[in-house]
Every structure is written in structure tokens, then in C-alpha cells.
Specification:
This protein has 161 residues and is mainly alpha-helical. It has helices spanning 17-26, 28-39, 48-52, 54-62, 70-82, 87-95, 97-103, 116-125, 129-134, 153-160, and strands at 8-9, 12-13, 141-143, 150-152. The longest helix is centred in the middle third of the chain and has 13 residues, at 70-82. The chain is globular and about 45 Å long.
């Protein structure tokens, strides 16, 4: 269990993050914006508390039906994407690799079907390497925590849509 008072978020001390994660678990739609303002503002900056929140986000996702996991994925995705920007983030990504793997399974770039492949190629050609790197995630897979069924994230989002 992290010592949240020793960690930081966008507002300084992260001692309020556990209560915020509790609220997020109960009402992800209503709390997502507030959670991200603290853990990953503008979806491009992460803090020590952001990385420490990944195991809890994985637990929240695992405790839900596949259709209810998307808010935890929407929170974890930007944090994971930011992890490559700092030594602390890289270390956290290594430390929480199993939790990240539970949350995010990007498609292999060569396996991007339909519009996803050309979108990725266009992003690369246009110098948008970050977009190209992140594009495989929504076209990847996830695993149901209850039955272990692996499913397509894009297909599931389309059904919910």
C-alpha cells in the first residue's frame, strides 16, 4: 500500500487520492474528470501518485463486467502513456507491468484492421508519433475478469455506442 502523503499529484500532496479512487469506484462517470485533473491533467502529465494508482485502477476494472471497465481504462491509458517521459514513470511501468497488462493490451501495429492501419500510417507520415503509438490501444483486446474471455475493445465499444 503506497504512502500517499509521500506521493504527489497535480495539486501537491496525494493524501486525498485514496478517497478519490473510492469515489471513482462508486461513480466512475461522475468522478473521472476530477480524478484525471489530479492524476493526469490534460492527459499528458503524470505524477508519482498517478503511477501508484495503477494497481487500484486495475482492481477496479477487474471487479466490473467488461462493459463497465472503460472508465478505468480511460484513466489508466493516459497515465501509462505518460510513463515513458520520466525515469520515475519508466520504473513505475516496470513495477506495475502485470497490472498494466491486465488493463491495456494494444493491437500489434501490423494487425490493425480497417481504418486503424491507415490512420496509424497517416499519423506517422504527419509526424504524429505519439498518436501513432497510442492508436493501437483502442483496437487491442481485453480480458473478462469473471470468465477469462478475451474480446476486442473496439467491437465492445461499438456495441455500447
Amino acid at each position: 500500500m503506497p504512502d500517499w502523503a509521500e506521493l504527489s499529484d497535480a495539486y501537491g500532496s496525494a493524501d486525498g487520492v485514496p478517497a478519490l479512487l473510492d469515489r471513482f469506484e462508486a461513480d466512475p462517470w461522475g468522478v473521472w474528470s476530477e480524478l484525471m485533473d489530479r492524476l493526469c491533467p490534460m492527459l499528458d502529465t503524470a505524477f508519482s501518485a498517478s503511477f501508484a494508482a495503477l494497481p487500484r485502477l486495475a482492481d477496479i476494472a477487474a471487479g466490473r463486467e467488461p462493459a463497465g471497465r472503460h472508465w478505468a481504462l480511460f484513466a489508466a491509458g493516459p497515465i501509462v502513456a505518460c510513463s515513458r517521459r520520466s525515469a520515475e514513470g519508466v520504473a513505475a511501468r516496470d513495477a506495475y507491468a502485470s497490472q498494466i497488462a491486465e488493463l491495456l493490451r494494444p493491437a500489434a501495429p501490423a494487425e490493425l484492421a480497417g481504418l486503424a492501419g491507415p490512420l496509424r500510417e497517416q499519423a506517422l507520415a504527419g509526424g504524429q508519433s505519439v498518436l501513432a503509438q497510442r492508436l493501437p490501444y483502442p483496437f487491442g483486446q481485453a480480458e473478462c475478469a469473471d470468465c477469462g474471455t478475451v474480446f476486442s475493445v473496439a467491437d465492445r465499444v461499438a456495441v455500447m455506442g
